[in-house]
Structure formats: structure tokens, C-alpha cells
Amino acid sequence: MFVHLSNLVELNLGHNLIDKVPSKALNNALSLRRLYLNNNPIKVIHNHAFSNLKLLDILSLTKCQIEIVENQAFTGLKSLKKLHLNGNKLRYVRLAF
């Protein structure tokens, strides 16, 4: 989806009806530094959901409906400085970066 946007550094997909992290669509957004997925009906963050986003430093998943974050959901996010998960329905979180 974002094939020709190699210089994209900020993407706000908040307030849509996205029900899962669009991992494949973000594969080529290698320059992405800030990603906002707020207020979407995402229930689970699966392993390696953001693994190609090596430069991502802000990830906001506030006020989604997240219940489960799998243990390797954020693997590969070596530049991550801020992770916002407030306003969710978290039942299980075991993080590994």
C-alpha cells in the first residue's frame, strides 16, 4: 500500500475501522518514525506486527480495543522511545523488544 512512500516519516491512521495492524501494508515504509493507530477496533497485537519499522520511535495505540499483546509484538523496534497503550482493555501483556 505504501510502496512509493519511502520518505514517509509520520502516518496517522487513527479513527478508522482498522481491526488489525496493517503489517504488510507498512512493509515498505522503512523511513517511518511515528505511527498513530489510535481509536481503531484492534483487539490483538500479533508477534512481529511492526518488525520492518526499524526507525519507528513513536507508536501510539491508544483507545483501541486491545486485549492481548503477544510477547514478540514489538520485536525489531530498536529505535522505539514512546509506546502508548492507554485506554485499552489489556488482559495479557508480556513484552520482548
Describe this protein's structure:
The chain is mostly beta strands and 97 residues long. Helices cover 0% and strands 19% of the residues. It contains no helices and 7 strands. It has strands at 10-12, 34-36, 44-45, 58-60, 68-69, 82-84, 92-93. It has a 4-stranded parallel sheet with strand order 1-2-4-6, with no helix packed on it. The relative contact order is 0.21.
The helicity comes to under 10%
Q: Determine Rg (CA atoms, Å).
A: 12 Å
Sketch the topology as an H/E string, one letter per element.
EEEEEEE
User: What's the total helix number?
Assistant: 0
The low-confidence runs, each spanning 5 or more residues with pLDDT under 50, are: none
Largest sheet: 4 strands, parallel
Q: Report mean pLDDT, rounded to a whole number.
A: 91
Shape: globular
Percent of sequence in beta strands: 15-25%
Q: What is the number of strand segments?
A: 7
Oligomeric state of the chains?
single chain
Describe the strand arrangement of the main beta sheet, using strand numbers. Answer: 1-2-4-6
Distance between the termini: 26 Å
What order do the helices and strands come in, and which of them pair?
Blueprint: E1 10-12, E2 34-36, E3 44-45, E4 58-60, E5 68-69, E6 82-84, E7 92-93
Parallel strand pairs: 1-2, 2-4, 3-5, 4-6, 5-7
